[in-house]
């Protein structure tokens, strides 16, 4: 109605003026091309012509236009195009249907008028053909009233009356003659034209039915299908209508009998196949006549899939009824019913098409069928055809050997068959699509599968690989699924891997994923194998043990040849749950094929990906530890490609996930024999300072043997994919990244202490993996190769943001190699034939300078210029470039290992039961002894050269500065940039740092204070201890233990002190600016040094007490670790040991339930400490004890005396007269004898007092005991008279700030503190100090003047010596200089610029 309304508004209202002309113009626009229909536009859409004519006629019927006007316009437009009358008549038919409902209406009469008026210029034939009979009679076109009756009779005769055949009219002689003619002996010269003429003559002569003749021709064709050339031409020319042929064939198919004993497809199917191949009939014509229906076939396929899915589902159901019903029975694929196959005419036709080599028709038919996989008979037929197609190419390109001819395959006989392949490009036309269509059914013909694999492998070796992508498709769709259906064919598995290994691991792993996850979950046959394999592997894994590895391993190997991925998924799942299966499973893998091992590598990576997220908050989840251990053992034992797993670890590091470094750590440890064990014994640590042979024999827990092949494979995997340096840099970056990365995934509900614990372990893991990998690369690479792969040192520091410890750790072997190469070059270029020690030292010094000079130049701009005012770049590079091997020869380790080998050689010689094997072992031990002795000799020569070089260079290491604080800044720089970063890097580096400080001292290095360096190391270690991870704390403890060992060696032996320290620059206490020569009294004396050692022990005790009282997990753990490490040299004082023991007992009591790991650490340390208590020293034995009040009185007398002296004798006893010195010697002897008597009396009395005090302490509260310990620590601390009260308050406040920042949520005591309580405690301490001060003054007044005069001189000398430090009192100087700082000196970064943030210290 919308178009009608628009027509009225556009044309009818102005019809007489312009509407008629406008309408004709619009109709004319539709008719542009007379050769095309005006109904459609160029784009194929309707033009609107019919709608316009309809609107015109409708307006005439409604009375909007005059009838004559409508007729005249229709007469005009009918002349414009030949198709207009037909279009007009179509519109009239529509209006006829609309107006026929009411024959008496006005519209019906107007419609009849239009038809009568249109009849003159429309064809009468068209009107009778299109319009209904009733309409024609209404209009008047049909005037005979009997026409309708006659029409009904004719229609009934044509469509409803059955034709009666007169059998007597069709003489049987004609059919007999036809059968004789068609079944006679036909030679090759017989032509179809002559037979066709005979057939036509017989039809005409005997009046035969043509359709029945066609049926007889097809029957004759069925009897002799080999005469296809004759019959195809005959049928094609006899019956031109393919629809008739299809109907006759359909009638025959509906009556075809199904038998069980068919060996080939029925001849009727062969005839149909030939007719389809020669395009006599089309597939669309014959397909509806084939049975069963597609819907039935689809239902059968769904039913099969659901049955297998139900079986797989029942496998995971655990029954409690007993072993009889503990799972479904194994699915055994039933043999297909032959009658069921032969009843499926579509599948039989597929086979017939393949028998006649009709490939295109087969592919078109099979693509329509709803089947899960290709049946056996069509699959074998297709394989036979492919044999013939690929035969020429296979014989040319893939013959195994010239003399092995093989069984030739005859070519296809049909001219319409696919062409044979003569090149790799020809494979794309037929063979590749056929293989894809064949799919898993390829397993029915293993020989064809071998041929295809060899052809694809040969194509892979050709430049450009014309079948690269096609080969991957064939592997995915046909070869790998077919391998699953081949039960236990290990040879085929190896052959498949020869093709797969030519592709990258990315392609292989993608194929394995589709093989396992897509094909194995969609194809019922593969699903069935998966279920059976899963049931068998469950049975096997329940029985795997160390005792039956061989039989169970064979079962696993046999089962893995076909379906390895399904098996390994379950095995890895069991390993993650039961880690004791790792050993037996790894041993049983020796029966696996190469393909199975490669699939195992993929399954391991997949398990690492899918296992993520379990055990939240753990640094090393149990499943990851189990998989890492299995990976290390499996990759070492078996030749599995490592590239995929290593790339996975690298990708995880790029994603800032460092947990998977545990895998790399296990792999390097197992395959290369390089351990990351931090808990080494002292003997092992000493052995690590030797050569490579000593390290291998005595440095590691497990001797490095049988790792040559696995180490080479690991090197090839790491270097071949450029992962060596990348993994090192990523590990180094992740070591700091994991510290700052927020825990947001699974750690939302965990405390900050547990997060710190996890982060610390992750950082240690990154450190261990980095050290392992760096050590492996340096030992496995040739020096030149390693230097070429490593980025330059400045680039590592600047571009990769790697710290100096890591950069120099990686470059240290390169620098040593460069120096050795230059030394060798200088030796060869020298003219002298004799080689002396001095010349070798000179050569080494020159070579070192030339090799290190570029490093020094490149390092200088990376740090601020202010740094180089305190230490020189040469010293910085020297410190970082050397190792323990360069400083000390582990003589004891060499001798101990030589003795062990001699004993083993002697026992091997005595053992005569082994025969020649014992002699070989003895020879091996003797060879090792010779090698070790030669290695020791070479190291001794090297160490002597290094010592000579260092003695020459040490003068310029520390620049001299006018300010007295220069020594402090020098030590600060040394600790920040050198000692602390390296002492926590590895255990060997911790020993190196201690040895290097001793070496610098032993070289009498100018402007370096050993005493000040040790003082800074021991005085406040709280901040450095609390900032360490667990591994760093252990290494830091080893460093302190070695330094303490040196300090206590000097403390215990006066002779050693005088020999190694007395006149060394490191023990100078007064530095002169104008005079470079020091005098004797500028050095620290032995007794003063013992006093300083006592202060160091006190400082260490106080730092440990602070950490143990903090309540923070990290501080307590690190303090316990450090205490365990330094136990050989601390504590040695009984009183300090009691204080520490009480703190340890407190930790044990508080952490027994809450944090058991701390309880275990504390218990272990407590037991070791109790064993050492009987050997503790008294304070009087440790150093000369001076009563506090006597020391104060003496100090006052000394101050009065000092006021009368010259200004140049303020702080030093340098200018004392010779007479005073002589008197002091005699007085010293006398006083020493008296002091010994007094000390004995005091020790006896003190023992009684101590026993009484212990009895009293049992009745007192722990709070009183704590106050008493604090009073003792204050009593042995530096005198409070030399400190300002505000300094103590500031120091306490800052200490509380540091402790509160490190405690986290775990410390309840610190959480309960408030400013008001702290103020009250501070006020109480101040009152106690005042009372003690008043009591000391009262005691001094009451002291007899005789006793004071007797001891005054000795005390005065002691006080003067203690005051002779470079900046006054040593304790006061240390307190004023360092304890007022807000930060630890190890963490002070204020002097660094922003661009140097990559340096952690």
From TrEMBL:
**Location of the THO complex subunitTHOC2 C-terminal domain:** 868-1169
Gene Ontology annotations for the cellular component aspect, listed alphabetically: THO complex part of transcription export complex
Provide the residue span(s) of the region labelled Disordered. 1191-1401
MF terms (GO), sorted A to Z: mRNA binding
Q: Where is the composition biased (Polar residues)?
A: 1207-1216
Residue ranges that the Swiss-Prot or TrEMBL entry lists as coiled coil: 891-949
Q: Where does the record place the THO complex subunitTHOC2 N-terminal domain?
A: 556-628
The alphabetized UniProt keywords are:
Coiled coil, Nucleus
Q: Where in the cell is it found?
A: Nucleus
| THO complex subunit 2 N-terminal domain sequence ranges | 10-395, 420-554
Please list the GO biological process terms of this entry.
Answer: mRNA export from nucleus; mRNA processing
- Composition bias (Basic and acidic residues) maps to 1218-1273, 1284-1293, 1306-1331, 1339-1358, 1383-1401
Q: Which top-rank group of organisms is this from?
A: Eukaryota
User: Where does this chain mainly localize?
Assistant: nucleus
Subunit field text: Component of the THO subcomplex, which is composed of THOC1, THOC2, THOC3, THOC5, THOC6 and THOC7. The THO subcomplex interacts with DDX39B to form the THO-DDX39B complex which multimerizes into a 28-subunit tetrameric assembly. Component of the transcription/export (TREX) complex at least composed of ALYREF/THOC4, DDX39B, SARNP/CIP29, CHTOP and the THO subcomplex; in the complex interacts with THOC1, THOC3, THOC5, THOC7 and DDX39B. TREX seems to have a dynamic structure involving ATP-dependent remodeling. Interacts with POLDIP3 and ZC3H11A.
User: Of which family is this protein a member?
Assistant: Belongs to the THOC2 family.
Q: What is this protein called?
A: THO complex subunit 2
Originating organism: Leptosia nina
